[in-house]
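Notebook B, p. 112. Complex prediction, attempt 2.
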Amino acid sequence: MRLFFSLLLSLLLAACAGPQLRGTGDLGLIIERASGRVTLVDTSTRQPYARIDGLGDLSHASVVYSRDGRYAFVFGRDGGLTKIDMLEAKIVKRVMQSGNAIGGSISQNGRIVVAQNYTPGGIKAFDAATLELLAEVPAEYAPGRFSKVVGLADSPGNKFAYALFEGGEIRVTDFSDPKRPKTDRYPAGNQPYDGLVTPDGRYFLAGLFGEDGVALLDLWQPEKGARKILENYGKGQEKLPVFKMPHLRGWSVAQGKAYLPAIGRHEVLVVDVATWKEVGRIPVRGQPVFVMARPDGRQVWVNFAVPDYGKVDVIDTLSGKVAKQLEPGRGILHMEFTPRGENVWLSARDDNKVLIYDTATFTRVGEIAADSPSGIFFTARANRIGF
Amino acid sequence: MLSSRLVFALFWASTATAGNAQSTIAAPDTVRQKELVRLVRQDCGSCHGMTLQGGLGPALLPANLQEKPFEGLVATIYYGRPGTPMPPWKQFMSEAEAAWIVQQLMSGFPQ
């Protein structure tokens, strides 16, 4: 009798033990842009482990991760901001924060999540735990005129740098006092379309559409203002049509050089980060959209706008040339490296798959079914400045 | 008497021509229609939104387009708008197909 009861007790205890403990460092999510859905993935097993519906219009979506790597904050096109628990695989909080949004960032201390909006033009800050609205900073650049905000990136000091598309400015907002943000403004140039911060958080770069060049602000010496670099790269030559804007998130520095997408030229620009001068150009097979370095910086993978979005070019940074040309699938929208770069995951929107490649051998080592996949975001972004 | 008839005839002829430009667009065949619908939603959608509610580019819903001149919209698609991010799409379609797209946008674009 005693034996029977102790067996029963141990069975009951086992049932209450709960799910096995696991980390989040090798997880990620895939945006399914036409279905309002995300697929959660494990990059070690190269398998999906959950699908979550109900995220609204994800036809453009961007993701940042909480400081502890447990939660994803998904910014949707329709202004939806959704907090997802990567371990319990469910939505824990969701707000509609604007009419049209392009992305967002998380603060240095991980406590504030900021959305960048097209409508209403400006940024909004939320408590990362509860998604309570803390403050709003409209991007007013002329009386009654509000600009779309682009290129938002976090930088040290709980500051966020961003640019104004119509306003032609770079702004830096300090959220040290989250409910009382302070903003500084710097004239930048014509139609900044995206931005990024360098891995050390020091420089904010805003790519310009309305003129050749990039606006550069030294966040360590902002009083010097923004200056233009790469101003003449297209000088005197007919620009090619740009069917999709390049995306500057995901660039990197490799051996002291930065690799950037040209606008209106089928080239990747190579820039010396000590002097910010152009030191080379690499011809590629289309208008670059993403120019992304493998974490070690030895390779830079480039994808393209329509009609060339079936192609991916891989630059070897040692030789400075394209070392491999791939045609992985149809509609390659995004590329994401595993944390130390042994694999890259490519979304093939028109094949309804995410393709996994070995970056050393360029062989396909896996694939995951996904409905019109676009962005792929891994938790390794959680502790990178500017991501 | 004659001159006012002439004026009326000319007026009628001009409105008839404008009307004809819209009503006699040859629809592309069904396969091509699907391709064009996909192009608009997926590729134009990069800037105008897959739901056509706008993004970097303006919204393209019927309510947004109803006041705009038809031929102007066709030219915008086909030739682009220099000095703005709107590129020319002529390498992907004929002018008649651009006109068909405008017609569809103005009446509610198919999924």
